[in-house]
Recover the amino acids of this structure.
């Protein structure tokens, strides 16, 4: 999917993983949200369990420099003070906690920190443990800023309810089973359409593929949004719990996970056979798997790995963990044996890379290290050899109508696949193919355009329907270039992050679409801001999340 001019946009006010209504639309859930799952969200319109208000952001603690964030109705604070004093929301602090003392103090830990090292599949568990200890004892300014952004996002997620495939409109239910995941392919249009100028007649079959031209009708089918929002909520809430010790974050993460995956009344079937269908015509496509494989499900797996450390009597139980393993094992079987699953795995471009990353992560999570190692090792020849030229160019992505987006998209997929592969001892960052290509070169190939003062800069030589770019497009490379600096041993990339300010656009929040009030990734919190703004306006600088979440991230698909 493309950028703000097509299907996603950069927002900046509430924060990383914003799950309230600030990005892309009004209102939120129907009263009571998904009542079968115990949601308490309320707001105007709809029935998708999204809170009607993102809550007020306040920085009114006087000279102490503390930052408080209250949810809808003034419930709860961020508990994260940057400069001393107590962190409180506008109507009182339910997490409370004192963020003791000055610039070298802690970042606002508000409860008993979970013990143990999480068995994550993307992030490094040992690094997370060190980060937890650092935030509790004295962290860097960059870590504090990222942590504050995360906590603010988690506070919004607390008020955002839950999501379920069973809440979609009856018109989009397949086989009379609301538990089946359904979505429409983003580039399919009615048979009488000539997009973007002539949208055609809604529902007129057969729908045809117009690559790179996003059909806004796909937003009417809400399962994709629910999958993305629930996955990111699980991740950000679990991480907020692990780093802050505030049990309320674990409680909500567990509720979201049980609602999407485990509750018999609301759970998704472990299948995506009807994902990215050609509009209302026919069954799903292999390409639909990317709605889970690109970022969101691996994030959810890391969140679930963190929740496994919740040993409270009311926490994540052995039955919950066993239920998730059963669901994920069935989903692995779907990916390996179904027509759409096998088709996606056979894809040569970014779709195949994302598929390999997800399946490897699923193997790691479920303890199948043999298959995880085999698949990760095969990526050297199947992905890096086949996809990357000696100069780092990716010919399969450069031929796409939105070549800049897809070159970034596959580079990020390779970056995340390498992170998962490291968990089973496979080094993809260190591999160079017979042509001289590598993951590091693929990202370095993007560096000149990412840092160009004029746009599209060096990318002018390539066809791309999205030119001329704005800085939002440049920002697609930001986290991959972070990875290039840290894991690819690239001196030019590393030098960028020693400059103040960094001469690149930090991504704001990769929102899902202007017509649906849920979100998926990063936003910047702006004390006192009344509304969100596109990152291109420069009015609300985004926060670099790499200091606490060192992983490649991209617009959701």
């Amino acid at each position: 999917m493309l950028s703000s001019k097509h299907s996603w946009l950069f927002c900046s006010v509430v924060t990383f993983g914003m799950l309230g209504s600030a990005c892309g639309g009004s209102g939120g859930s129907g009263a009571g949200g998904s009542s079968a799952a115990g949601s308490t969200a309320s707001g105007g319109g709809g029935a998708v369990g999204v809170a009607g208000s993102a809550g007020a952001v306040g920085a009114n603690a006087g000279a102490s420099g503390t930052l408080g964030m209250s949810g809808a109705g003034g419930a709860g604070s961020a508990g994260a003070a940057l400069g001393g004093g107590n962190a409180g929301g506008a109507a009182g602090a339910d997490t409370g906690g004192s963020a003791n003392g000055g610039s070298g103090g802690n970042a606002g830990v508000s409860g008993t920190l979970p013990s143990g090292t999480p068995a994550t599949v993307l992030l490094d568990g040992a690094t997370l443990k060190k980060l937890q200890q650092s935030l509790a004892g004295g962290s860097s300014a960059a870590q504090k800023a990222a942590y504050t952004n995360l906590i603010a996002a988690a506070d919004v997620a607390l008020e955002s309810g839950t999501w379920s495939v069973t809440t979609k409109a009856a018109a989009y239910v397949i086989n009379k089973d609301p538990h089946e995941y359904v979505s429409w392919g983003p580039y399919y249009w009615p048979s009488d359409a000539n997009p973007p100028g002539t949208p055609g007649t809604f529902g007129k079959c057969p729908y045809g593929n117009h690559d790179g031209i996003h059909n806004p009708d796909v937003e009417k089918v809400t399962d994709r949004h629910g999958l993305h929002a629930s996955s990111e909520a699980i991740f950000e809430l679990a991480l907020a719990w692990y780093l802050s010790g505030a049990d309320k974050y674990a409680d909500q993460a567990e509720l979201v996970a049980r609602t999407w995956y485990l509750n018999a009344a609301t759970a998704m079937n472990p299948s995506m056979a009807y994902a990215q269908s050609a509009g209302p015509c026919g069954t799903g496509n292999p390409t639909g798997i990317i709605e889970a494989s690109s970022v969101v499900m691996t994030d959810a797996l890391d969140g679930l790995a963190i929740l496994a450390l919740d040993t409270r009597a009311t926490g994540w139980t052995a039955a919950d963990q066993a239920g998730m393993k059963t669901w994920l094992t069935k989903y692995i079987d779907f990916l390996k044996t179904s027509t759409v699953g096998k088709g996606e795995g056979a894809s040569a471009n970014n779709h195949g890379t994302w598929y390999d990353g997800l399946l490897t992560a699923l193997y790691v999570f479920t303890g199948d290290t043999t298959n995880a190692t085999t698949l990760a090792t095969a990526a050297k020849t199947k992905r890096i050899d086949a996809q990357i030229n000696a100069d780092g160019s990716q010919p399969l992505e450069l031929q796409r109508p939105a070549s800049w987006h897809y070159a970034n998209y596959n580079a990020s997929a390779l970056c995340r696949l390498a992170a998962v592969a490291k968990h089973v001892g496979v080094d993809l960052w260190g591999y160079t193919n017979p042509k001289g290509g590598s993951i590091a070169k693929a990202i370095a190939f993007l560096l000149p355009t990412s840092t160009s003062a004029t746009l599209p800069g060096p990318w002018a030589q390539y066809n791309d329907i999205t030119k001329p770019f704005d800085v939002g497009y440049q920002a697609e490379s930001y986290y991959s270039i972070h990875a290039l600096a840290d894991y690819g041993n690239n001196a030019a990339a590393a030098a960028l992050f020693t400059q103040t300010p960094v001469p690149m656009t930090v991504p704001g929040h990769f929102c899902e679409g202007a017509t649906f009030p849920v979100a998926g990734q990063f936003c910047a919190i702006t004390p006192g801001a009344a509304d969100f703004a596109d990152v291109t306006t420069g009015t609300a600088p985004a926060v670099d999340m790499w200091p606490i979440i060192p992983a490649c991230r991209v617009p959701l698909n």
User: Anything to note?
Assistant: The first helix runs from residue 125 to 137. The chain is about 35% helix and 5% strand.
